[in-house]
Automatic annotation (TrEMBL):
<dbReference type="Pfam" id="PF07969">
    <property type="entry name" value="Amidohydro_3"/>
</dbReference>
<dbReference type="InterPro" id="IPR011059">
    <property type="entry name" value="Metal-dep_hydrolase_composite"/>
</dbReference>
<dbReference type="InterPro" id="IPR013108">
    <property type="entry name" value="Amidohydro_3"/>
</dbReference>
<protein>
    <recommendedName>
        <fullName>Amidohydrolase 3 domain-containing protein</fullName>
    </recommendedName>
</protein>
<dbReference type="InterPro" id="IPR032466">
    <property type="entry name" value="Metal_Hydrolase"/>
</dbReference>
<dbReference type="GO" id="GO:0016810">
    <property type="term" value="F:hydrolase activity, acting on carbon-nitrogen (but not peptide) bonds"/>
</dbReference>
<feature type="domain" description="Amidohydrolase 3">
    <location>
        <begin position="40"/>
        <end position="482"/>
    </location>
</feature>
Length: 487
């Protein structure tokens, strides 16, 4: 690996420096103009340099494949979705293994609910599967359900475990070429991203090994394993943090366990029932996707093998139960999402040494849905400020494709609680910019650190929310190697 000298680079709030990179790490930092040239010399011209960005929660196959699905992200009603399906049928939209797929509807505020009859009335002779924006349910016709072996009720909607298992089977036949993942990794690098935490429900270690061998080398990948692959990972002797590929781009991540559903699907497991739902019904307060007993068994098994855990918990009941489980086991880990938390539970995250992995763009996407379905509780919803003030370690992510794989957007939403010109939503839950930046990186500008770097045309600390959201990235380096360079 050749040396690299970056001249006249300015860390945020600091004086310009020269940075010498050797063997993929920062070897020296000197005042600008004083370092001897070594290897390739690049004049950064006073641009801002910082640690490369991480996205702490992605589903890469879903992110890549969404471009082949009917775009439903701008729909606001069942009628809008059905119109989009009809247009797709008329224009011979591309299929996925014979399915006409759509992605991105959010029905939490629809005046009229989804119905099987309405979807059947589109008269498509194709199996139609429309995936919700949160990935936790799908609206499908009878042809699709029959092919997937699913039972439909009058809504035509299948949610949570049966749907997630069906989506995995669909994705196994998606036909995505290696270059699609390479292109997605390159696009992330253009936004200053050096690494992602992969939570796709598949053989992430095996598939990413192949993708890296086929040229997807712009990102570090921390790959999670779902419960059905836990035993195979243990048998392979892999522990959290172990390098999996010779280049050091792929590491073993955590066991991913999904304890409840989502807000938009009204399956997040809460202490209080959802408005308008019979309190005596089985799922009035949401869904317990994995029982607490099973969660404890899985975490104990993982802990004994040196595998840490990342547990999906969105509703306040789910968060309480997961906190209780971590506490009972004396185990540290990550809680993914932590969207609704009881006031007395914020401090428990910190006292137990747990990390909250949160997605600030979700707060902007879901603020109106939360105001309706978590009415009276939104002061503790997406409560990044409360978590930070309690001393909780934070990581920011996107949950791509649920929101874009672009950490600058997450940083902007975390610090402003605003988007699209709207007033800030619960501004008391904003994060300071330095905290949001720290929650988006894993290294620092210091001797001995990996040379995972981002160079921007603008200092983030001089930018307002909109400029943060569209931050111009001039270059990205991964282990001292340029993965993006625009100057």
């Amino acid at each position: 690996m050749t040396d690299l000298t970056l001249r006249n680079a300015r860390p945020s709030g600091g004086e310009p420096v020269d940075i010498l990179v050797r063997d993929g790490r920062i070897a020296e930092i000197r005042p600008a103009g004083t370092a001897p040239a070594s290897g390739e010399v690049v004049d950064v011209a006073g641009r801002t340099i910082g640690p490369g960005l991480w996205d702490a929660h992605v589903h890469m196959t879903q992110w890549v494949i969404q471009r082949r699905r009917i775009d439903l992200t701008e729909t606001a009603s069942a009628a809008d979705v059905l119109a989009a399906v009809r247009r797709a049928v008329d224009t011979d939209a591309p299929l996925t293994d014979g399915f006409l797929m759509g992605y991105g509807f959010r029905d939490g505020l629809w005046a009229q609910p989804a119905t099987l009859a309405a979807l059947e009335a589109t008269e498509s002779d194709l199996p139609v599967v429309l995936v919700s924006g949160d990935l936790h349910c799908a609206w499908m016709n009878t042809r699709a359900a029959r092919r997937l072996g699913l039972d439909l009720d009058a809504s035509g909607v299948v949610a949570e475990a049966p749907w997630i298992e069906a989506l995995q089977r669909i994705d196994q036949h998606s036909g995505l070429a290696a270059h699609a993942y390479r292109d997605a990794a390159d696009a992330a690098a253009r936004r200053g991203v050096v690494g992602v935490v992969e939570f796709e429900n598949t053989d992430n270690l095996g598939e990413w090994s192949e993708r890296i061998a086929n040229g997807a080398r712009s990102l570090r990948i921390e790959a999670a394993a779902w419960p059905d692959r836990l035993e195979s990972v243990i048998a392979a002797g892999l522990r959290t943090g172990d390098a999996v590929d010779p280049a050091g781009l792929l590491t073993m991540g955590r066991l991913k366990v999904v304890v409840d559903g989502s807000l938009n699907t009204r399956t997040a497991w809460c202490w209080d029932p959802y408005p308008g739902v019979d309190p005596s019904s089985a799922h009035a307060c949401g869904v317990e996707s994995v029982s607490v007993d099973e969660l404890r068994r899985l975490l104990e098994r993982a802990r004994g093998a040196g595998i840490e855990a990342a547990v999906h918990a969105i509703g306040d009941r789910a968060n309480t139960e997961v906190l209780d489980t971590f506490e009972a086991l004396g185990m540290r880990g990550v809680i993914e999402h932590a969207q609704l938390v009881r006031e007395q539970d914020f401090a428990r995250f910190a006292s137990l040494g747990l990390i909250a992995s949160v997605q600030p763009e979700h707060a902007m996407d879901d603020r109106d849905v939360a105001d309706r379905h978590w009415i009276g509780r939104t002061g503790r919803a997406f409560a990044f400020g409360s978590l930070h003030r309690a001393g909780v370690g934070l990581r920011l992510g996107s949950d791509a494709p649920v929101s874009p794989l672009d950490p600058w957007q997450a940083i902007a939403s975390a610090t402003s609680r605003s988007r699209d010109g709207r007033d800030a939503w619960h501004p008391e839950q904003r994060l300071p910019l330095d905290v949001a930046m720290e929650a988006s990186v894993r290294t620092s500008i210091a001797v001995g650190q990996p040379a995972d770097l981002v160079i921007t045309d603008l200092d983030p600390f001089d930018a307002d929310a909109e400029r943060l959201r569209s931050m111009p990235v001039a270059a990205t380096l991964l282990g001292g190697r340029f993965t993006w360079r625009a100057f």
